[in-house]
Amino acid sequence: IASMLIFSLPCLCIEISAKWAFLGFRREGSYDWDKSSYCQRWQFFLSTVRLRTHCFDSYGVLNHITGSAWLVLYFRALGSSIGRNVCLYPNGGDPLMTEPELVKIEDDVCVDDASLIAHVNTRGHFTLNKMKVDRGCVLKSGTRLLSGASMEENSILLEHTLFPSGMIAPKGSCWQGWPAQEVAKGSFV
Hints:
alpha/beta; six-stranded mixed β-sheet; five-stranded parallel β-sheet; 24% helix; globular
C-alpha cells in the first residue's frame, strides 16, 4: 500500500498540474480543430493522463479510489463543482468526467458507471457545453449524459440510458432507453 501511495500521488499531481498548465479553466464554446489550439493542447494533456491510466498493470490509479471522497477531491482539483454527499463511480467508469470544470454536481448525487461528456466532436467541429446534475439525482450503470444536457432535482437515469445533448430531465422524472424516454414521473427519493 505504501508503494502504491508513493507512486499514485506524484502521478495525480503531475496530471492536475498538466491540466492547469496546458488547458487552464475550460469554458463553453466552439474549438474547431482547424481554428483553435485547444484540441492539440487537449491531446498533449491526454499523454500525461497515460501515467495514471497505465500503472498498476493498467488498472490505473483512480480505480483504487472510485466511490470515495478522494475521487471527489480529485475532480474538484480539476475544477469541477461538486456538492456534499456525492458518490462518484462506485463501480468504476469509462470514461470518467472528460471536462470536469464544465460539470456541476449538486448535493446527494450518485453517479455509478456512467459517462458525463461535456464535449461534442463532429467532423472537426469541437464544442464544449456545461452540464448540471441537480440535488438528489442518480445516474445508474451504463448511462451517458451528453454535452449540454441537465438533470433537475431527484431525476433518475436508469441503466443503459443515453440522455442526448440539450435535453433536460424534469424534477422527479425517471428515464430509460437509447435515446432516453421518460418512463415515470413522481418522487423516487
